[in-house]
Design brief:
382 residues, alpha+beta, eight-stranded mixed β-sheet, four-stranded antiparallel β-sheet, 9 helices, 14 strands, 34% helix, binds ligand DP6
Length: 382
């Protein structure tokens, strides 16, 4: 497999029984027996939410549970190199940061803030000097949110080094759980990227072991048709989002529909899990499209108000509805908090849907750009 870091993969699906406490004793390196310098490299994918996380409280805790499909081709590779700091711990995070081989001050600053926030739980972070080399499999200008893949890749690297130094994450489920927990602290949606196929983040009576603190895998309980799903991302605009996720979530605090929305998301999640177990594509499409439109409606009626769809996003939605009515093919849309449209459909109609995209939808995409993706098997350590 080719990447700028040239990785190849090995991680497999793990069944989950979450038993290991997250907040363990302080993790401090013994300076009389210092670890050797080393590095770790993870590739982690993005994910597409079907039930949306929109609204949070406390320390990155979700107002409602969400469900996503894990993607395969939109990934971040992150290599974390570490060595013991010279002299004593100076109370600072020491980090050099390279994005696609160039130093990146803005990304470095975000990661420093993130590592700083983790250091009370993981004091060894301040005993080491780090170099991060990272990059995405998709062009930075593609308008695809990279925080889920980037933060999950970084969280996995941190778990690998914690386990290397302290042996605290030998249990595969404990490892994934902590990676998901750390990823969440970096970016909420990132916690769902740790798992293959599909994940639920947020407490729900429908999923044993579910939690607001981390995501859990649900790939094992969904119908095989959803494991063979495509997500072709129609890039309507690659411009920077007009409102950041952080600001968007905050707008929910003053939104008059916030409470009914959170209740609706809980109900929809339960129903979606049922139809995904049963393999009911029609009902799946109804819920998923309703969710996407609800997210955009919430943004439209927030204060200030945002219209994140573009005329081309709406044109695509209309054409998808018409195509479905004409052909009966199961193809559905969803959107994140931006103008790009994700087309979701099962592998059995890939030839027909790709032709439909080429003939009728590419004209609505910036430079005709479509990022082809599909349901994947989760992160891989290289
Ligand atoms: C619309 O995870 O990007 O994509 O926690 O502030 O980093 P932060 O937000 P983020 O929000 C994602 C919102 C969404 C829906 C979703 O992925 O569930």
């Amino acid at each position: 497999m080719r990447s700028f870091l040239n990785p190849c993969f090995s991680l497999h699906f793990k069944h989950h029984t979450f038993i290991i406490p997250l907040h363990m004793s302080r993790l401090i390196l013994d300076s009389s027996n210092p670890p050797e310098a080393g590095s770790v490299l993870w590739r982690s994918p993005s994910n597409i939410a079907l039930i949306k996380y929109w609204g949070k409280h406390g320390t990155q805790l979700p107002q409602n549970p969400s469900l996503s499909l894990t993607l395969a081709s939109s990934c971040t590779d992150t290599q974390l190199e570490y060595e013991l700091k010279e002299g004593s711990d100076d109370g600072q995070i020491a980090l050099d940061f390279f994005f696609h081989e160039a130093e990146n001050v803005a990304f470095r600053q975000k990661v420093v803030v993130f590592l700083e926030s983790l250091s009370p739980e993981m004091p060894f972070l301040k005993q080491l000097k780090f170099t991060i080399r990272t990059g995405n499999s998709f062009p930075h200008s593609a308008g695809i949110a990279s925080s889920a893949s980037a933060m999950s890749a970084l969280a996995l690297c941190l778990c690998s080094i914690e386990d290397r130094f302290f042996g605290t994450l030998q249990d595969a489920d404990a490892f994934d759980q902590k990676a998901s927990y750390l990823a969440r602290l970096g970016s909420g949606s990132a916690c769902r990227s740790i798992f293959p196929q599909a994940a639920v983040w947020g407490l729900t009576s429908m999923v044993a072991g579910s939690s607001d603190e981390y995501a859990v895998p649900v790939g094992e309980i969904i119908h095989p048709t959803f494991k063979d799903f495509h997500d072709d991302i129609l890039i309507v605009s690659s411009e920077e989002k007009s409102v950041s996720s952080r600001a968007g979530h905050a707008l929910m605090d003053g939104n008059p529909y916030a409470e009914p929305r959170y209740a609706q998301a809980r109900t929809r999640l339960m129903r979606l899990l049922e139809v995904m177990k049963a393999g009911d594509l029609t009902e799946f499409g109804k819920i998923v499209e309703d969710e996407a439109l609800t997210l955009h409606a919430l943004m439209m009626c927030s204060n200030p108000s945002y219209t994140l769809m573009r005329p081309d996003s709406l044109a695509i939605i209309e054409k998808v509805r018409q195509y479905r009515a004409d052909t009966g093919h199961p193809v559905y849309f969803t959107l994140d908090a931006g103008p790009n449209v994700h087309l979701l459909y099962p592998g059995e109609v890939v030839v027909e849907v790709r032709k439909f995209i080429e003939d009728h939808l590419e004209e609505h995409c910036e430079g005709g750009h479509v990022q082809q993706d599909w349901v994947g098997e989760g992160p891989e350590e290289v």
